[in-house]
Amino acid sequence: MKKIKLLQQLTNEGVVAVLRGETPEEVVEMAEQAIAGGIKVIEVTMTVPFALQAIEKLAKKYTSSTQDPSKYAIIGVGTVLDPETARVGILSGAKFVVGPALNPDTITLCNRYRVPVMPGVMTIQEIQRALELGVDIVKLFPGNLYSPSTIKAIKGPLPQANVMPTGGVSLDNLADWIKSGAVAVGIGSDLTTEAVKTGNYSLVAQKAAQYIEAYRAAKG
């Protein structure tokens, strides 16, 4: 039931902040600003040096329980290439796992521990395989290689597939992705680039608020 509840929360929130940085401290700052701006689902990628430190700190500060809104956020681990990385991410407090590609062993491990896993896919064959392995949400990646109409095409033969585009999603096209059937979207560099360039991380909160506003408008 815990996994089902988390999946419901992920899709209800609808926007996932995919965070990369030079240090764990930088990523924690980005995450805190994104959460303050309204994005409550945070994916810390394993490309960040000492990423587990950031995940652990955020997981201790925030909880996936909605009983305390001031501390509510769902922290996950991304760029997971193998089950070993997934497991250490989970042990560090990650509530969900995201990969850039379809790795059956990673999916098996996450299913064992009842942790939502979202592997990256590019083809109908990969999506079908993910469904057969028990995946609930697939990550269409890199999203900038596709148009929002791709989701409608996918749902022709696979209407049961839950698709989350990541990469290339912007304020300009978010509504198109949602209206085409995306269950959520992953937001990467567009959320943080300006803040990193200027050193003003409050810009992350401002951009996060814009994304949440755009998402809610798209959902009606």
Automatic annotation (TrEMBL):
Alphabetized Pfam families for the sequence: Aldolase
Gene3D superfamilies (alphabetical): Aldolase class I
InterPro entries named among the record's database cross-references: Aldlse_KDPG_KHG, Aldolase_TIM
Pathway per the UniProt entry: Carbohydrate acid metabolism
Molecular function terms, GO-annotated: lyase activity
Coiled coil start-end: none
CDD domains (UniProt xref): KDPG_aldolase
Keywords recorded for this protein, A-Z: Carbohydrate metabolism, Lyase
Family the entry assigns: Belongs to the KHG/KDPG aldolase family.
Assembly behavior: Homotrimer.
Name the record gives this protein: 2-dehydro-3-deoxyphosphogluconate aldolase / (4S)-4-hydroxy-2-oxoglutarate aldolase
Native source species: Paenibacillus tianmuensis
